[in-house]
Amino acid sequence: xxxxxxxxxxxxxxxxxxxxxxxxxxxxxxxxxxxxxxxxxxxxxxxxxxxxxxxxxxxxxxxxxxxxxxxxxxxxxxxxxxxxxxxxxxxxxxxxxxxxxxxxxxxxxxxxxxxxxxxxxxxxxxxxxxxxxxxxxxxxxxxxxxxxxxxxxxxxxxxxxxxxxxxxxxxxxxxxxxxxxxxxxxxxxxxxxxxxxxxxxxxxxxxxxxxxxxxxxxxxxxxxxxxxxxxxxxxxxxxxxxxxxxxxxxxxxxxxxxxxxxxxxxxxxxxxxxxxxxxxxxxxxxxxxxxxxxxxxxxxxxxxxxxxxxxxxxxxxxxxxxxxxxxxxxxxxxxxxxxxxxxxxxxxxxxxxxxxxxxxxxxxxxxxxxxxxxxxxxxxxxxxxxxxxxxxxxxxxxxxxxxxxxxxxxxxxxxxxxxxxxxxxxxxxxxx
Length: 432
What we know:
- By secondary structure, the protein is of the alpha/beta class.
- The chain has 4 domains: about 20-145, P-loop containing nucleotide triphosphate hydrolases (Rossmann fold, 3-Layer(aba) Sandwich); about 150-225, Helicase, Ruva Protein, domain 3 (Orthogonal Bundle), CATH 1.10.8.60; about 235-325, Zinc Finger, Delta Prime, domain 3; about 345-425, post-AAA+ oligomerization domain-like (Orthogonal Bundle), CATH 1.10.3710.10.
- The protein has helices spanning about 5, 20-25, 30-35, 50-60, 75-90, 105-115, 130, 135-140, 150-165, 180-185, 190-205, 220-225, 235-250, 255-265, 270-285, 290-305, 315-325, 330-345, 405-425, and strands at about 40-45, 65-70, 90-95, 120-125, 140-145, 175, 215.
- A 5-stranded parallel beta sheet has the order 2-3-4-1-5, with helices on both faces.
- α5 links the parallel β2 (about 65-70) and β3 (about 90-95).
- α5 (about 75-90) runs parallel beside α6, α9 runs parallel beside α11 and α15 (about 270-285) runs antiparallel to α16 (about 290-305).
- The longest helix has 23 residues, at about 405-425.
- The radius of gyration is 28 Å and the shape is globular.
- The N and C termini lie far apart (about 80 Å).
């Protein structure tokens, strides 16, 4: 019998989980399928993220013949068979795994068929195609990244597999504990293939209890996916305790503690939580004090997602150390939260007339936009003008700190503009 991950492959685009930037409503691949104007493309990203699923869904949605080959192990003769089929049927969608390993003879054979549209090539690779794939192939394809699936996407797919009686495990009386499900979703690091196959192994290797129920507990899932949970209790609170301690250690500038909690998250294989939390930490706790470090954190997360474990630990460790030792500031989140608090308490007021939309007939009769001062018409592209609603015109949300040179410079500019605004409106009131 074929593995669960194979059986649960989507039959059309609507069954694809994740990768909504490609297959969601009105997105590029959905548009191609709807218009039946398919072009060859390359999907690159980590294993188990849906590259093959997207290809099979495209084929299912278009009713074109679908063939799958491997650029490393299948021969030129195998390509010839696909080409002959394309001549007979008109169009064949060819999923070519490991396309970065396509040698010159196979490439030379394939190119004419891509040119005339008989073969629609969907190349799949875990390598950066801009580096690893021959320019001749690259120039005839569109290149799209695929990303590790979110916990929510993984959960949808797992639940679908548990309830599908035709292709999935729906005929088996399975009870999946909450902490076991969390481990299945996090430990497989966004790799749906691993999650589904681990789930099937767990289900088929576990004896029913006295009530006939196949009870999948945390230890069962740990053994089936070969990843231990970080630490766990019945409610899974300890997992979130580690994530919390991770952020607080970085916020508190304790490098060794942060590396300890990072190691526990790495050991659990929880790349998704690490990456999400690091971006939050960078913007929330370092923020304006060191924006270059924030950007480097985003870059490190992207690198980690691209290369996966075990190598992902390298950029993650580097950026954790930098964030720990960086100056800290939460003035950004404090500013927007202060604004939100006032808005939610009803502190809004009418948008000043001179700021209202004036791009319609009759706006001037209402006084909308008529007294607006265009800053670019003034020296240094600035002029004193009231922007806040009248009832909250003196509101201040941003309170710059002085923990880093960058925010100090922003703070100096902020106060300079703030004072100039106040003085300008005091001495030359634009609007009575």
